[in-house]
Amino acid sequence: MKRPQATLSAIVCVFSCIVCATSAVAATHPMDPLTAEEIESAVTRIRAIQDIPDKAFFPLIRLFEMPKAEVLVWRPGQPIARRAEVIVYGLPGLYRGIVDLTTKTVERWEKINGFPQLAGREFGLINRVVKAHSGWQDAIRKRGISDFSKVIVMPFTKGYYGTDDRDRWLIRTTPFLVDETRNLWGRPIEGVLAMVDMDQEKVVEFADTGIIPISSNPVGFTEDDVGSLREGPNIITYHQPEGASFTVEGNVVKWQNWTFHYRFAPQAGLIISNVSYADQGRDRSIAYQMHMSELFVPYTDPGQAWYYKTFFDQGENHLGDMVSSIRVGLDCPNNAMVLDAVTASVQGEPRTVKNAIALYEQYEGSPAWRHHDTILSYFEGRRGQNLVMRFIATIGNYDYIFDYVFTQSGAIKIRAGATGIDSVKGVESATLSQDRTGEDSKYGRFVGENLVAINHDHFLVYRLDLDVDGVGNSLSRDILKKTRFGDETPRTSGWVLDSRIAQREHEARLNMNMKRPALWRIINSNKTNPWGHPVSYQIKPSMNAISLLDADDWPQRRGMFSFYNLHITPYRADERFASGDFPSQSNGSDGLHVWTAEDRPIENTDVVAWYTVGFHHVVRAEDWPVMPTSWHEMTLRPFDFFHRNPALDLPDQKGQ
Ligand SMILES: [Cu+2]
Q1: Does 403 participate in catalysis according to the annotation?
Q2: Is 179 a known active-site residue?
Q3: How far apart are the CA of 457 and the centre of ligand 1, in A?
Q4: How far, in Å, is the centroid of ligand 1 from the Cα of 436?
């Protein structure tokens, strides 16, 4: 049987295959992403004031947004103040510049604290440096591997554990054997620990903690690997004979009363801005901006090779830069429009990512609403169709599918699908029956011979800057309060709503609780619907989880937001990422928990909701060698925002 082999060059290709020629476009909206010309211009301005040595690089080049107050009054055709934020690493250290692209001047240039994300650039360096280390070579040979080209050394962010190494950019590594498999993650070579100082380009810590068998189980998942295949079902395809019913002008999308702007950003991935809904011809604002803000994935194994694996996948890797091009017909329906994105390479050059985003209408085969009246003998119902904007990021072993789903009834569903490959650890015991002490399977479950998938969590925090009919908003917590009835009724008990407006940030740090249910709504108390209720959008959770780590555990100190499903803050332009702008090796001194510690007022002001979608992942055999996609979601649901079901005016289209 022919087995494709992964090689170092094939892996490097992951980072280079999406680099293509860029085309000239000018920004027509304040939220438009930086164009290729703007990226080039920004880098030219920075190079004009600062010598950038060859070893330095540009971890991040992104739009520096026009102030919110100016964007809110901006109208198409009016001038746009365009600025770029440019981060440079290696001067030495981290520097940040703000470039005015109109006047072509550097407005700000400053040294800042922190370390860059893993940007692909370090992959080659790590493999070169680690493979040249004599201790590492001896350790690999001891495990019966003499051909080092069959070993790939993967870099991992090391986090922070209270040691005073915050002045050095350090990367930990794990080697993987890729002989006869394309599943890079399936054959970890345990016990060979090398840490690299990225500035000195040398191994500064090395340990061989002992030989653990490398699993010989098949771990591939190509058709050849799987061998016997079932007969596939007949394919369902989607066709819209009359074409899509959305329009995309520049980066502004319009569909079924919705208008929003999209852009693709290197750190946040997809950013949806200026979301409004035309209610009987009048555009009403719902959200100023929505995007992912952090993705915290702590593993729970305390062992020497695993304790540090507590990743901040957005800030330590940059979701947008980890984008994986959409495959139409597999990753999304055939009727999708796929959109390219321009981002910057670490060399500071523009690059176009092909098929970064999919935009499509989806018919789920369900009614938007229906009623069959058996007494009066009539039926009335309408087909429901959604608009989905999607991107996919592959962060090392995991693939995440990020969706914003706009419905005809005024709701926005925000969902994420997790698939890809689980992180596994090589262990001495082949299976559970051999694990007599229970040590090998204490923090995970066997998914193959000598392979244990380690327990972990995923916490996806979204930054949702809602502007419900304007910026003056509050959080209403409507508690379903149990009540005891009097003698006037045969009933003894029920519940009533007890609505409370959160005055300050600490009152708005909330978790779901089945015993004490409550609605969470962002309300505009200055506007009411015709029936007298303040207009609002509900933040409606689905299944959720909070962190079980202790507050004194270093990963938790850096990802404190994961103690709560919801936070509300007053709007601040520079409060964007829940674990701070540069979480690599951060010590928890920046981020949502630091900002909210002030307990700032949040009543009737411009507020931002931070909603965390969390799930604990106990890995099953069925999650190996590649996981079935598992979805997690939340919904922004109109609540007294309209005066009736906004999908009432749908025409009767039964289709074929
Ligand atoms: Cu998982």
Answers
A1: no
A2: no
A3: 6
A4: 26
pLDDT digits (tens, 9 = 90+) for 406-464: 999 999 999 999 999 999 999 999 999 999 999 999 999 999 999 999 999 999 999 99
As a whole number of angstroms, the longest Cα–Cα distance in the chain is 86
- Distance in angstroms (rounded) separating the CA atoms of residues 368 and 365: 10
pLDDT at 492 over 50: yes
pLDDT for residue 286 is more than 70? yes
Instruction: Kindly name the residue from 313, 331, 467, 606 that is annotated as catalytic.
Output: 313
Residue with tokens 């981060």: 87
Q: Domain residue spans in the chain?
A: 31-112
CA-CA-CA-CA dihedral for 407, 332, 7, 344, to nearest 10: -50
Look-up of token digits 């999708």: 336
In whole angstroms, what is the distance from residue 181 CA to residue 2 CA? 11
Cα separations in angstroms, 404 against 57, 170, 292, 314, 418: 33, 36, 11, 18, 15
Phi and psi of 60, rounded to 5°?
-155, 130
Answer whether residue 16 shows pLDDT above 80. Answer: no
Pick the catalytic residue from 398, 400, 443, 462.
398
**C-alpha 294 to ligand 1 mean position (Å):** 15
CA–centroid distance, residue 52 to ligand 1 (Å)? 39
Q: Is the pLDDT of residue 489 over 70?
A: yes
Q: What is the number of helices (H) and of strands (E) in the chain?
A: 8, 30
Report the predicted TM-score, pTM, of the whole model to 2 decimal places: 0.95
| Assigned fold of 31-112 | Nuclear Transport Factor 2; Chain: A, (3.10.450)
Encode pLDDT of 152-183 as tens digits: 999 999 999 998 777 899 999 999 999 878 89
Place of tokens 């599918």: 401
Helix runs in 585-633, H state only: 592-596
Model confidence at 8, pLDDT cuts 50, 70, 90, reads: very low
